[in-house]
Backbone:
């Protein structure tokens, strides 16, 4: 039953330190814009923060964190379109698709920025097909 | 959008003072005797009676005449996450809406008697859910989403007293109806997914004045037991143990029974801990006098897949023994002696793939591959929705069966991850999942299971394309009422499972149906609505996309036989 070895335990305790707000991640395929991040922050606070927390730490037991280790594990490596489509179709719960695709993209830009993806002068498009070519990687 | 702090709110707060009927004069207080042995015309508690049967002793509506049921009145409710239970006393229905609104309605006509609107702090999320309220003496007890217990004058809706149960700014919230026992109002709270010194707890208040009498936290403190079941991790990093159902009460045994949720984060790998984690995933039997834990029973030590194993406790004697039954997300009917906590053999409904049981009804072991490892996708049946959840099962003394509202689905590609092991960190630790149909039931998400509590045999099973989305209601007329996500509301024959009546609702049946009598007529009330967790949102939206519903629409719908 003891699956967790001490080394893992040490690792977990070490990782705790990393509120990933520095430039920890790179976005390839395009960029997120300053103004977009601000728009996304507003939309996130209104539509998402009630469950996912205004600091992206979940305040609802069923909702995942959108930062830290959960972000590192869930948002990196795959086409960004996957997360985008999941958010558009299911969030907020029961009201999937209730915001415009561009607003969802703005929210994604805000989530990426909060996790340390640097801003550029281009913006994330509200278009799943285009986001197929975007990937987040850990630095 | 925000209606908080606006002059309108102040106005409506004043409006509560305008009782449209002279309710005050006619109101008869609810006595201790009635709490223990209510008039069948009333539905006084969350599950009707303190033994949590969810059973109405009314028998005017029967298998023979139920086909004639007709719509009598409805009442639209506030928007938000809707999972309510109405209660009824002396022909008045009291109901909590999402977003902190409570109303008293004439239970025969649907006329408004009074309304209470809670004013929340600035920025508080709108439309937060409530699963029920309570009545005792001359007061209604409303567990408010901002973690305040509000006592209202049952005749007028005026605030009698308020008690801050926990800190809503620290994520704490009240969702479950309080239990009335021993002159006290006893309520638990949830919101313990982030690491904090403030643990989830069960708290008792003096019903008359709101004085806090005791508080029992659900997490073992370091040094409390002989061996630390959290493997000596700091107290602040012990998460979970949320309470989101109502306790049951046995006045003879002088015990209350309440279910404690799993540890958080959900997976052992995320919480950096393999310990049993007392008192998570347990039944606590508490002395209502002082809150002391008289016995507890942990169903799965160190539970690791978000399987809440303890919801409502149905108190029923088995083989002449004072016993209880309880079913959690895995669909296992746990049974035990309710005076001692001693296990009785358990019945696995047979679709979970996570654990094995011993013959005596205790946990044996996790199956191969069912304890997550960081970053490695795994499959679990059920998914974290559970085969069942807050939608309570009802018991019928005539059939000796429990009627279980289920959603049959699995998690595929669940990935658990580390979490931030600091105060304020935590969360559920899951970074990905996909919901899929159960391989043994590829066409249906929903089911009502009738299970014999003595033998574990299925009397019958009633499949539904979408999830069962209400609690069940049993009646002395030999009926079981339940509804689904696809807006169907059914009356089934308790013995055979035959559909005797059904109707199409404007929105999903969602909440706890009840039956009551007013002016000599028996009614059945069913809440409808939207919101809630993935069982009633993303799971049916993703897996049964051909089923379309309106976007909103919370309401109470009331049915009766023609006059």
Residues:
């Amino acid at each position: 039953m003891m699956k967790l070895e001490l080394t893992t335990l040490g690792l977990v305790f070490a990782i705790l330190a990393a509120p990933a707000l520095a430039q920890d991640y790179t976005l390839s395929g395009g960029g997120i814009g300053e103004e977009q991040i601000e728009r996304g922050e507003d939309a996130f606070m209104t539509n998402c923060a009630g469950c996912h927390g205004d600091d992206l730490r979940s305040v609802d037991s069923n909702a995942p964190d959108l930062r830290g280790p959960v972000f590192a594990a869930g948002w990196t490596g795959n086409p960004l379109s996957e997360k985008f489509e999941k958010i558009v179709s299911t969030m907020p719960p029961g009201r999937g698709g209730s915001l415009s695709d561009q607003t969802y993209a703005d929210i994604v830009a805000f989530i990426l920025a909060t996790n340390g993806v640097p801003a550029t002068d281009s913006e994330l498009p509200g278009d799943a097909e285009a986001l197929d070519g975007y990937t987040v990687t850990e630095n | 959008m925000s209606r908080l702090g606006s002059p309108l709110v102040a106005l409506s707060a004043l409006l509560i003072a305008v009782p449209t009927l002279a309710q005050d004069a006619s109101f008869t207080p609810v006595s201790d005797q009635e709490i223990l042995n209510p008039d069948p015309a009333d539905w006084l508690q969350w599950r009707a009676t303190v033994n949590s049967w969810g059973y109405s002793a009314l028998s005017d509506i029967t298998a023979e005449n139920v086909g004639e049921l007709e719509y009598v009145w409805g009442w639209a409710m506030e928007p938000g996450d809707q999972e309510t239970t109405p209660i009824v006393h002396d022909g008045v229905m009291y109901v909590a809406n999402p977003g902190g609104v409570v109303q008293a309605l004439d239970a025969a006509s649907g006329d408004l008697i009074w309304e209470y609107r809670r004013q929340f702090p600035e920025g508080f999320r709108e439309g937060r859910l409530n699963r029920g309220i309570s009545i005792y003496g001359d007061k209604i007890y409303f567990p408010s989403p901002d973690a305040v217990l509000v006592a209202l004058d049952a005749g007028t809706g005026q605030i009698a007293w308020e008690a801050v149960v926990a800190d809503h700014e620290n994520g704490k919230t009240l969702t479950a109806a309080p239990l009335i026992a021993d002159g006290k109002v006893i309520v638990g709270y949830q919101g313990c997914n982030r690491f904090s010194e403030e643990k989830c707890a069960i708290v008792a208040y003096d019903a008359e004045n709101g004085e806090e009498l005791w508080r029992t936290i659900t997490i073992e403190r370091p040094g409390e037991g002989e061996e630390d079941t959290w493997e000596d991790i700091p107290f602040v990093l012990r998460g979970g143990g949320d309470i989101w159902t109502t306790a049951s009460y046995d006045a003879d045994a002088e015990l209350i029974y309440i279910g404690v949720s799993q540890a958080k984060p959900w997976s052992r790998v995320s919480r950096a801990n393999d310990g049993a984690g007392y008192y998570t995933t347990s039944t606590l039997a508490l002395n209502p006098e002082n809150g002391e834990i008289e016995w507890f029973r942990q169903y799965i030590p160190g539970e690791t897949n978000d399987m809440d194993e303890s919801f409502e406790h149905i108190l029923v004697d088995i083989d002449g023994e004072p016993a209880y039954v309880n079913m959690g997300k895995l669909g296992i009917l746990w049974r035990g002696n309710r005076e001692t906590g001693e296990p009785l053999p358990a019945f696995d409904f047979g679709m979970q793939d996570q654990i094995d049981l011993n013959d005596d009804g205790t946990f044996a072991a996790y199956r191969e591959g069912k304890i997550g490892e960081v970053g490695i996708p795994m499959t679990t049946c059920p998914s974290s929705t559970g085969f069942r959840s807050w939608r309570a099962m009802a018991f019928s003394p005539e059939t000796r069966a429990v009627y279980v509202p289920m959603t049959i689905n699995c998690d595929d590609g669940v990935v658990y991850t580390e979490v931030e092991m600091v105060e304020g960190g935590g969360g559920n630790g899951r970074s990905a999942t996909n919901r899929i149909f159960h391989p043994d039931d590829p066409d249906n998400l929903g089911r009502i299971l009738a299970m014999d509590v003595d033998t574990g045999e299925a009397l019958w099973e009633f499949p539904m394309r979408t999830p069962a989305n209400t609690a069940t209601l049993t009646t002395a007329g030999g009926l079981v009422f339940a509804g689904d996500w696809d807006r169907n509301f059914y009356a089934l024959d308790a013995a055979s499972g035959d559909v005797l009546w059904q109707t199409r609702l404007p929105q999903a049946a969602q909440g706890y149906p009840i039956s009551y009598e007013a002016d000599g007529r028996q009614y059945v009330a069913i809440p409808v609505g939207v919101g809630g967790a993935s069982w009633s949102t993303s799971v049916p939206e993703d897996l049964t996309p051909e089923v379309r519903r309106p976007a909103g629409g919370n309401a109470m719908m009331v049915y009766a036989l023609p006059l």
